[in-house]
Write a structure and sequence with these properties.
This protein is α/β, with parallel strands linked by helices. Helix content is 20%, strand content 19%. It folds into two domains: 96 residues, 3-Layer(bba) Sandwich (Glucose Oxidase, domain 1), CATH 3.50.30; 170 residues, Leucine-rich repeat, LRR (right-handed beta-alpha superhelix), CATH 3.80.10.10. It is globular, with a radius of gyration of 20 Å. The N and C termini lie close together (6 Å). InterPro entries: LRR_dom_sf, STM4015-like. This is Leucine Rich Repeat (LRR)-containing protein. It comes from Chamaesiphon minutus (strain ATCC 27169 / PCC 6605).
């Protein structure tokens, strides 16, 4: 399964596709998204060059990069943005990789080393990334970043370790799509220990360990983790959570301190679902899935993998 819709809003603002004809008419009110198709007249670098030369570019708070030139990584885009940072002094939010499954499967999106972006944009507060192939986060050190979202169909343990070594004192929202081991998602619960300790990001309010093929193990670990004492939202959605993880969450006294528990896309039996309603917090149990059985084997699939 994959992602088949572009984001409709970004940092709370509507999105408009950028073209060389539209220009930047509303630099603050809307967010511009730019992308190319396989037969586009302009390359993504052409669009970026046109965009950054516009007089209103200096006022733009956010930018979305969709499909870039086929058969290339995001390296050229990253290099351009780094070199153009003085033309985008107000840029505080960036989404690199708003690419749907119709354009390119999430496991095929070729990313690159994104660490220079954090150095080039000290005012950045929101960084969203899609795709794990070739992705390097590097030294995650930033004084203002509040939101970090990494969407993949299989997040490698190397990237998780980079997050676990990060110095992001203002981080409030951490969202990792851990994915499937068939697509590079080799992270274990033990690898997440620094995040679950609650010491790594003291200002964290939202923790998303989403789209995981080991959702039961993660839920069991999170249910007794110190990080539950500080966050307001726990998001374990899009994974293959079943009765084992559900039981662990229900048995945790710390769960009731949450404002919201997001478990949408799950395999939780009915007898457990009714108990979540008694917690007195906002629990999302939408998108119930059915276990696939074949020759006495049970298969529970995550929402986004290939």
């Amino acid at each position: 399964m994959g992602i088949y819709q572009h984001v409709e809003k970004f940092i709370g603002k509507p999105i408009v596709e950028y073209t060389t004809d539209t220009g930047i008419a509303y630099p603050i009110e809307i967010i511009y998204r730019m992308s190319v198709e396989y037969d586009s007249e302009h390359s993504i670098l052409d669009l970026l060059a046109h965009f950054t030369e516009h007089p209103n570019a200096s006022r733009v708070p956010g930018l979305i990069i969709g499909m870039w030139d086929c058969e290339e990584s995001s390296q050229n885009v990253v290099d351009f943005l780094v070199n153009a940072s003085q033309k985008l002094p107000s840029l505080s939010a960036l989404f690199l990789g708003d690419i749907t499954g119709d354009e390119n499967e999430i496991s095929w999106i070729e990313q690159s080393d994104l660490s220079p972006l954090l150095t080039a944009y000290p005012q950045l507060e929101h960084l969203q990334i899609r795709g794990n192939d070739g992705l390097v986060l590097g030294e995650l050190k930033h004084d203002r970043l509040k939101t970090l979202i990494v969407e993949t169909g299989g997040l490698s343990v190397e990237r998780v370790r980079e997050v676990c070594q990060a110095q992001l004192p203002q981080l409030e929202h951490l969202e990792l799509w851990l994915g499937d081991d068939n697509y590079g998602g080799d992270t274990t619960v033990e690898d997440l220990a620094p995040i679950l300790s609650g010491k790594l990001f003291p200002n964290l309010k939202y923790l998303g360990l989403r789209d995981s093929c080991i959702a039961d193990s993660i839920a069991t670990a999170v249910a007794k983790a110190p990080v539950l004492q500080q966050i307001k939202v726990l998001d374990l959605s899009l994974g293959n959570l079943g009765d084992v993880g559900a039981a662990a969450l229900l048995a945790s006294p710390l769960i009731k301190h949450l404002a919201k528990l997001d478990l949408n896309h799950h395999y939780i039996p009915e007898e457990f679902r009714s108990k979540f309603e008694e917690l007195g917090i906002d629990v999302d149990l939408s998108d119930e899935q059915e276990v696939d059985e074949d020759d006495d084997e049970e298969y529970r699939y995550i929402a986004v993998s290939e």
